[in-house]
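Our consortium's second objective concerns turning raw sequence data into structural hypotheses that experimental partners can test. To show how far this objective has progressed, the report includes one record in full. It was chosen at random from the queue rather than selected for favorable results. The single chain below, 320 residues long, was entered without modification.
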Amino acid sequence: MNTGGRRSSAKLAVLAWMGVIWIVATASARAAPVGDWMTVATYNLQNYTLADRRLADGGFRPDYPKPEAEKKALRAVIRSLDADIIALQEIGGTPFLNELRRDLAAEGQDYPYGEAGLAADENRGLAVLSRVPLGRVTLHRDLKARRHGAEEEAAVRRGLLELEVPTPGGVITVFVVHLKSRLTDDKQDPAAEDLRVAEAQTVRDRVLELCPEPSVARFVIVGDFNDTPGSRALKAMQARGKTEIATWLDALDERGQRWTHAYTQIGVYSRFDQALVSEGLRRGNSGNATARVAGEPWVEVAAASDHRPLVLRVRTNPLP
């Protein structure tokens, strides 16, 4: 019995149902443009897609959707954020995003604008939900990261999502990332640290191509870095040589805690989700951009995902 072949066929059928890898979810409703402040949240949804799962009853299911109880908790968390824009990680493409938008709208939370895309990772992609009109949205799927010198080249598996947001002070660009996890079989690169650094450098270089003068450019970089403040990957994203790309923002939850990822099996809590802001948006004034970790509603946050959302608030026309 060739069960592996049947599973592969099932996955191919799902991908065929999705159609092309990059599909625009067109908004049918009008929304007000962003005001003097813009709120951007980043949230890893923990496999809002088809995945192999160990269910609550102890059973195992291959290629199984996210359980309804987790989805319900997830929507409660999203509603509590009151964010203009939500950058999403670990979502399975446009059909899954459309399902989430539909269910949120049924509960009174309308995000009329949304786009999703898959890159080299055909199961877990990047997406955005927005209640404000967006400009150009691009998924950069062509990024190649080099590690072990220049001997090895690997795709940045989740790509880089770029979206332009018209604001009263001009366009703000939001870059969304999801760097390599720590799971790896590479004995030369324990915890995949070198690969995350290579991905961060590649993403940083693309950001610099698009925004060659970061001191005056207006952009933020948000997402799941799978690494902590002070790590090599985060430092690589913040600067290239003496060129500072963006400033990292600290964040606390309602209880004064910083962690955004819970590895509950071994009791490890880490700050994996990050927000970086260009100097063009900060203008040397820390009050122009602040961040917080969303820890409430506690029960729903714990049930929805192994990540907690990070919420960034930026002034669209910053004060000097």
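The partners drew two points from this record. Confidence is low (pLDDT under 50) at residues 1-10, 12-29. The chain is about 25% helix and 30% strand. Both points have been shared with the crystallography group to help prioritize constructs.
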